[in-house]
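Today's session is about reading a structure prediction critically. Students often jump straight to the picture, but the first step is always the sequence itself: look for stretches that repeat, for charged clusters, for runs of hydrophobic residues. Only then move on to the predicted structure, which in these notes is written as discrete structure tokens rather than atom positions. Here is the chain we will use throughout the hour.
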Amino acid sequence: QVQLVESGGGLVQAGGSLRLSCARSGRTFSRSAMGWFRQAPGKEREFVAAITWTGGITDYADSVKGRFTISRDNAKNTVYLQKNSLKPEDTAVYFCADDKGYGTRYYDTNSWGSWGQGTQVTVSP
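Below is the predicted structure for this chain, in token form.
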């Protein structure tokens, strides 16, 4: 079983920036894609960003395009989410995801087999 641990969340004012990290362990090497999702109070978990194993292909939810950047460092077994120009609407618990099923849709929460515990991001006005 893969273990995923998110870090970097916290309280930030609107317009500020945060960089989230997701460290994976249990299996040193992986060729799988990884993703970021978020869940706000009273809402379902939603797709934020995804990246392929090589980092050559990325995709983002429309709500974060131009503001968030997903990247990965396979040597460190870590995926990152740089979050700029933060808005109060970005307030949520952010989760990283791994073990996407072959041929499944990356924006579907049901496609991913492993999840981190989540890190809280609160953006104040």
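Discussion point for the tutorial: The mean pLDDT is 94.
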